[in-house]
Amino acid sequence: MKKNILQPAAIAFFYFLFSILQVQAQSLNTSPVRIAVARITHDHVGWILSRNKPDAILVGIYEPDNELAQRFSKKYGLNINLFYSDLNKMLDAVKPEAVVAFGSIYEHMAVVEACAPRHIDVMVEKPLATSFEQASKMEALVKKYGIKLLTNFETSWYPTTVKTYELTNDSNYIGNIKKVVIHDGHQGPKEIGVSPQFFNWLTDPVQNGGGAIVDFGCYGANLMTYLMHGEQPVSVTAVTQHFKPEIYPKVDDEATIILSYPKAQCIIQASWNWPFGRKDMEVYGDKGYIISVNNTSMRLRAQPDSVEHSRQVIAADVPVYTDPFSYLADVIRNKIKVPENGVYALQTNLTVVRILDAARESAKTGKTVFLKK
Q1: What SS3 state is found at 251?
Q2: Which sequence spans correspond to the domains of the chain?
Q3: How far apart are CA 285 and CA 177, in angstroms?
Q4: Burial of 190 (0-12, 13-18, 19+ CB in 10 A)
Q5: C-beta separation of 101 from 114 below 8 A
Q6: Under CATH, what is the fold of the domain 8-154?
Q7: The domain defined by 155-320+345-370 carries CATH number 3.40.630.10
Q8: CA-to-CA distance for 129 and 143, rounded, in angstroms?
Q9: What averages of pLDDT result for each successive group of 10 residues across the chain (373 residues)?
Q10: Closest by alpha carbon to 87, among 105, 113, 48?
């Protein structure tokens, strides 16, 4: 009697067909994405804790500080049973599809190490990591286990960010980019009244990786890498200062970073000393300029008329998600793909961390740091 044995080609075709069906089934899945939170010491965590939209559901919160967990349970009307003091136990108990990290930057590594083997996607708050060594280990875990790893920046939600990209890269409104100047920051963490738990790690050189140079320098590095289609700078030069050592004795509160490219330059001004909060960007080309004053206001000027125009851009005008958790949910449900060089993308944010590493080294040594290809 002959055995009915499938040929290798038939087996390969079977698995190929099965994988296609799996992707299709996932894309048709309209159930809320199961999201868990890792740590609640970042003040921006309130958005996800108070969020009430049908695309995602909060299934668990990891927070080892019991007093903080109790306080947030009452503040946001959350069942205390949602809180866990052990990350691994939470992941195994609630089985989330994604985890959003709202602890220190240094803790992002541990979140990815716990989630990746369980095939749980992760979104961290900016920046991706405190060092390029950490970021590279995260990249290895992403590749090994096939998870998605996103980095969330406030400027990713801005209609003006997307419109600037469209005008510089799609319509060539200002010609070739020559100089970009990016301003980010505020009066300082203490001055704006951040919570004690946020202040403690935000001003710690290990947990945050630095002061203003990391907290706000990462925005400029992310935006410039996005505008340059992922191109890395040739060199990084940075200067940091302590204007308020009595408040921030361990980390800088003022930083300027210069990124040099073969045909362009970017100046990143990151500060905890602005008289007011700001996130604005100036992009100059050989035919004109685009100034993004805030998330919706722009000033434009280009040849041949050379007259400056003011323009308002809202979310309906451009393909932008103003809610990062909606973006994450649609990525997980395969409704959208993260562009390789997009603002959330892993490759973009590996470059961001590499730039920050070089900036810290430059500020420390007083020398320009040249990046190896």
Answers
A1: coil
A2: 8-154, 155-320+345-370
A3: 4
A4: middle
A5: no
A6: Rossmann fold (3.40.50)
A7: no
A8: 17
A9: 49 53 58 98 98 97 98 98 98 98 98 98 98 98 98 98 94 94 98 98 98 98 98 98 98 98 98 98 97 98 93 97 98 97 98 98 98 86
A10: 113
